[in-house]
């Protein structure tokens, strides 16, 4: 049972345009959401996060939007650059029954074409 | 800056061998994790530890064990390596609870032949 879903395995955009990566979750206990970026043969690096009490968080070219009622979040990259080409993982965390959970999606491979 | 160091970047082991993957973090984090990453499957949690000598099973603990004798070090052990354990293994650490950022190491590519 996939609790965090990234339904698009890949996305291709032109340099300078907007990249929108989507993520859906099923469990209401998640209260914190994170995006990680991963280059081949490297570990994931933290990109941006959002608490469930907010609906938007912005950091430079990266903005994360959270729609709690739809259990959906998205990462916007504007403008996209070739160096943004990587796999992006969405993650959701929360506590249930005294036990912490951090669940990752399967990732979306973003390719930004020059 | 947080530093999570995995001792081996690339390993090739034979089926049945015992394999140790070592991870050290330098930020006094309580929580440490081991994940594996496979194409199309994302990051899957093998084990995590929230304190010295404490461990909990993740989603895919079968075939693995862990050791945390010191706060800064978290080891993943494959008692008898099998070909289906060929993967990229990622160690991570985090201070405090689930709202805090998790920091990953560079990863260890393990090939079991």
Describe the protein's architecture and organization.
The complex is a heterodimer of chains A (114) and B (113). Chain A is mainly β. Chain A contains no helices and eleven strands. In chain A, the strands form two sheets. In chain A, strands 2, 4, 5, 9, 10 and 11 form a six-stranded mixed β-sheet that branches. In chain A, strand 6 (56-59) and strand 7 form a beta hairpin. The model of chain A has no long low-confidence stretch (mean pLDDT 93). Chain B has 113 residues and is mainly β. Chain B contains no helices and twelve strands. Chain B has strands spanning 4-6, 10-13, 19-21, 23-25, 31-38, 42-49, 56-57, 65-70, 73-78, 87-94, 103-104, 108-112. In chain B, strands 2, 5, 6, 7, 10, 11 and 12 form a seven-stranded mixed β-sheet that branches. In chain B, strands 3-9-8 form a three-stranded antiparallel β-sheet, with no helix packed on it. In chain B, strands 1-4 form a two-stranded antiparallel sheet. Chain B is globular, with a radius of gyration of 13 Å. Classes of the chains: A mainly beta (114), B mainly beta (113). Chains A and B meet through strand 4, strand 5, strand 9 and strand 10 of A and strand 6 and strand 11 of B.
Mean pLDDT of chain B, as a whole number? 92
Reported for the largest beta sheet of chain B, the result is: 7 strands, mixed
Radius of gyration of chain B equals 13 Å
Largest sheet of chain A: 6 strands, mixed
Mean pLDDT of chain A: 93
Helix content of chain A: under 10%
Number of extended strands of chain B? 12
Q: Can you tell me the residue ranges of chain A where pLDDT is under 50 for at least 5 consecutive residues? A: none
- Count of β-strands of chain A: 11
Query: Structural class of chain A, please?
Result: mainly beta
| Beta-strand share of residues of chain A | over 45%
Order of helices and strands of chain A: EEEEEEEEEEE
Class from secondary-structure proportions of chain B: mainly beta
Cα distance spanning the termini of chain A: 38 Å
Most extensive contact: A-B, 26 and 22 residues
Radius of gyration of chain A (Å): 14 Å
Shape of chain A: globular
Give the helices and strands of chain B as they follow along the chain: EEEEEEEEEEEE
Strand content of chain B: over 45%
């Amino acid at each position: 049972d996939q609790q965090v879903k990234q339904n698009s395995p890949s996305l291709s955009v032109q340099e300078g345009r907007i990249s929108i990566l989507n993520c859906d979750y099923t469990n209401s206990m998640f209260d914190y959401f994170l995006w990680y970026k991963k280059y081949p043969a490297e570990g994931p690096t933290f990109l941006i996060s959002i608490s469930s009490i907010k609906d938007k968080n912005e950091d430079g070219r990266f903005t994360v939007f959270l729609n709690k009622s739809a259990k959906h979040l998205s990462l916007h990259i504007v403008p996209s650059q070739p160096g943004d080409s990587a796999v992006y993982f969405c993650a959701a965390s929360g506590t249930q029954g005294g036990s912490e959970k951090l669940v990752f999606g399967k990732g979306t491979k973003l390719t930004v074409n020059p | 800056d947080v530093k999570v160091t995995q001792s081996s970047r690339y390993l090739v082991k034979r089926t049945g061998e015992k394999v140790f993957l070592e991870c050290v973090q330098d930020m006094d984090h309580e929580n440490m994790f081991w994940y594996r990453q496979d194409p199309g499957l994302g990051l899957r949690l093998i084990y995590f530890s929230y304190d010295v000598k404490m461990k909990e099973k993740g989603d895919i603990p079968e075939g693995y064990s862990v050791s945390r004798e010191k706060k800064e070090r978290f080891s993943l052990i494959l008692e008898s390596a099998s070909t289906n354990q060929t993967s990229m293994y990622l160690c991570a650490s985090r201070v405090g609870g689930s709202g805090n950022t998790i920091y990953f190491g560079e990863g260890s590519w393990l090939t079991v032949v």
